[in-house]
Amino acid sequence: MKSASESLTTVHVSTQRTWHGGEGQAWLLMQGLRRRGHRVVLLAREGGEFAKRASADDFETHTFRRRGRGPNALWSVRNCLQAISPDVIHSHDGHAITCGGVASLGLGVPLRVASRRVDFTIRSAAKYTWLADVVIAISTAVAEVSAASGLPRSMLRIVNSGVDPARMQGGCRARGRNSLAVTDDVKLLLVVAKLTDHKGHIHLLRAMPEVMGRDASVRLALAGEGELADRLANEARELGIADRVMFLGYRDDIPDLIKAADLFVMPSHMEGLCTSLLDAMFARVPIVTTGAGGIADVVHVTGDQPPIAHLAAPRDNVAIAVAILRALTNRGETEKHVEAAFKRAHAHFTDDCMVEGTLAVYREWLAKSDARAA
To answer: What does the pLDDT look like over 350-366, one tens digit per residue?
Structure first.
């Protein structure tokens, strides 16, 4: 068995075809583990974005077909695991738990880790309890929902998501505003989120007539794709604000867009944690947000710590409008929030914080494995 100071062999499993926030977090973890001298291997979907990026960055990468649940895929994954003999298998999505967990049965892998990144009810708690030893939740809210879904609290650990602070340093306000044809006199509000129900875009749109009625210079930009794109565009037209709302779709210039914003808004009514909110904190952009789900871990400071954002109740378009108008008009208060958010992000929500927290969980549970083996 390995001591706490020895390097680990870690295998990371992803079945996702496209690239979203969860894949970004797994990527930062893999990068951080490699920088610390650990062996990092990826098992990922054939033709998926994760496998492509990992191969291009010289990670040891093996692929399987589709979601890794067919007999041939499971046999391929099992052969890889036998050859690699990992200390840790870390599954980064729900289907990956099945793939990595089933393929590893009987191989004596010391530790099987599953990440849980959303605060939705777990449909099959048994899958987690049978095929994982520990579940890493990205926020208190995710851990609480996981426990309420039937996972034993003893197998839950919380490691908040983190982002690379340097990511925002490359953002350019002028470039971002030019890309949107936004002039200097415009007050730009930005949301970066998938266009799906729990992100709360509909409530923000319904708040905008009040905001824009009081400040004609306000424009709203929504960056992201999703199943609600048409419905939200129709809502903007019905509200009479379509000419002042920009639906940007998928963008690969998020740092520029965040820097271009005068206010970052996150109206979610459910949320795992929200890494785009962390990006805004590092970019020193003022924030209006709800405290829904895992966002509470980010914004609910205690004691004598200063607030970091203007808060609004979820699903409350009146409260959202009030918070936006206050953020735009009370400059002194908003500037204090920005500096407090920047400091809090550096103290608690960097990728290094996330990597070290995850390693601490690995070490804790590997020690338990060693104790059982002894």
So the answer is: 999 999 999 999 999 99
Contacts of 56 (CB under 8 A, 6+ apart): none
| Mean pLDDT across 165-180 | 95
- pLDDT of 256 > 70? The answer is yes
Pair 289, 266: CB distance under 8 Å: yes
Q: Are 225 and 296 in contact (CB under 8 A)?
A: no
Could you tell me if 292 and 314 are in contact, meaning their C-beta atoms sit under 8 angstroms apart? yes
CA dihedral 122, 125, 131, 136 (to 10 degrees): 50
Among 103-117, 132-146, 298-312, which stretch is predicted with the lowest mean pLDDT?
A: 298-312
Question: 332 φ, ψ to 5°?
Answer: -60, -50
**Pure H helices in 85-200:** 94-104, 125-131, 140-148, 166-169, 173-179
Output the CA angle 136-140-146, nearest 5 degrees.
60
Structure tokens at 361: 């969980």
Domains of the chain in start order, with CATH, are 9-162+351-373 (3.40.50.2000), 166-348 (3.40.50.2000)
Mean of pLDDT over the chain:
94
What is the phi-psi region of residue 190: left when phi exceeds 0, alpha when psi lies from -120 to 50, beta otherwise? beta
* Residue 163, φ and ψ in degrees, nearest 5: -130, 165
Contact indicator for 349, 341 with CB cutoff of 8 Å: no
- The pTM of this model reads 0.91
C-alpha closest to that of 185 among 146, 209, 219, 208: 219
C-beta neighbour count of 168 within 10 angstroms: 22
pLDDT of residue 18: 87
Can you tell me the distance from the alpha carbon of 350 to that of 167, in angstroms, rounded to the nearest whole number?
11
pLDDT in tens, 174-227: 999 999 999 999 999 999 999 999 999 999 999 999 999 999 999 999 999 999
